[in-house]
Design a protein that fits this description.
two-stranded antiparallel ribbon, single chain
């Protein structure tokens, strides 16, 4: 199983790592993957965990052999500034051409 992660998707990675149905978990993201992988590796479960970054074909390595791929949706990192979050709450911020209030 492969998943990408942001701070809001780390709990999903934790649940997947703890699941008896997952025997291998590959994490991929543009940043922070090594630290999250190290944190989750301390959880006792049958799942082997590996973390990948974009360098050295990280995405290809993360997806190779995957039976299930989970791509959590969330707010893109570049919009996590507090002004965007405030605008999103009011329905005025746009993400990918669609207002957040309509997404």
């Amino acid at each position: 199983m492969s998943t990408s992660l942001t701070a809001s998707q780390q709990p999903l990675s934790l649940l997947l790592k703890a699941s008896p149905l997952v025997d291998k978990l590959a994490l991929y993201d543009v940043v922070n993957t090594p630290g999250v992988t190290a944190d989750l590796s301390h959880i006792s479960s049958i799942a082997q965990i590996e973390g990948y970054l974009p360098a050295d074909d990280g995405l290809k390595k993360a997806l190779t052999g995957a039976d299930v791929v989970v791509i959590p949706a969330g707010i893109p990192r570049k919009y996590t500034h507090i002004s965007f979050l405030s605008a999103q709450k009011e329905g005025g911020a746009e993400t990918g051409g669609v207002k957040a209030s309509q997404a």
